Amino acid sequence: MVSRRGTAVTLGSLALVVSSVLWAPAGQAHPGGDGSLTCSGTAHGSYDPPLTLRSQDSRIHADVRYSCTDGPGRNAPATSSFDAVAPSASCVSLSDATGTEVVRYADGGRSVIVIDGTTARAATGLTVVQSGRVTEGRGAGHFVRRTVTSYFRQLPPECLGSGLRSTQSSVELEILP
Predict the structure, then answer these.
(1) Is the pLDDT of residue 140 over 60?
(2) Is residue 11's pLDDT more than 50?
(3) Can you list the alpha helix ranges (DSSP code H) found in the chain?
(4) How far apart are CA 94 and CA 60, in angstroms?
(5) What angle do CA 82, 87, 88 make, to 5 degrees?
(6) What residues are paired with 86 via a beta bridge?
(7) Is residue 23 within 8 Å of 137, Cβ to Cβ?
(8) What pLDDT score was predicted for residue 48?
C-alpha cells in the first residue's frame, strides 16, 4: 500500500517530468504560438564609403548581438549579420535602404529577413525604422519592424571631414504576429 506522502512524491515527480518534456529551455527561444518574437541588442555597423554630411550611395554592414524573447521568462541569445544598400545616406539621414538580415538563434535555427522600407530621423542621434518580412526560417511570412538608434550628443567630427566609418547602435527587432 502506498502512503499519502508516497503518492504526493510520485505525482510531483510525474509533473516535473511532463513539464520538462513540454517546456522549451530558455536557450531555445523561437517565435511564439502567434509567430511573434522580440529581440534587443547592440550592433557594430560600418559604412562604405564613409558617411559625410552629403548624401551618397553607401553600403552598410552590421554585426548584431541580440537577446530574444517569445514570452515571459523565455530568453535566448542570437546573432545576426545585416547588409544593406542606401542610395542616399549621410550622417543625418538615411532613406530608401534595402537589405537582408540573417538572424542565427542559439538552438541552431535562423530567420532570413528582407528589409524593403526605411524611414529615419535625426535628433540626439539617428533613429532608423525599417520594415520587411521574414522570407525563410522561423517566422517565415511574418512582417518585421527593426529600429536602429545611434546616439551622439553632437555630430561626430568625422562627418565634417573624412567621413564616419562605423557606429555602435542599439537595435530592436520585432517579428510581428
Answers:
(1) yes
(2) no
(3) 4-22
(4) 11
(5) 105
(6) 58
(7) no
(8) 96
- pTM surpassing 0.90? no
Angle formed at CA 171 by CA 117 and CA 150, multiple of 5 degrees: 90
Amino acid at 127: T
Query: Which residues, in sequence order, are bridge partners of residue 47?
Result: 60
Summarize pLDDT for 64-84 with one digit per residue, the tens: 999 999 877 788 999 999 999
Between CA 60 and CA 136, with CA 103 as vertex, the angle to 5 degrees is 105
Within 8 A by CB and 6+ apart from 63, the residues are 43, 44, 79, 80, 81, 82
> With left for phi above 0 and alpha for psi between -120 and 50, is residue 112 left, alpha or beta?
beta
Residue in this structure with the C-alpha cell 513540454, named with its chain if needed: 22
Mean pLDDT (the chain) is: 80
Q: If you search the block for the grid coordinates 514570452, which residue do you land on? A: 71
Burial per residue of 138-147, b for 16 or more beta-carbon CB atoms within 10 angstroms, e otherwise: bbeebebebe
What does the pLDDT read at residue 125?
72
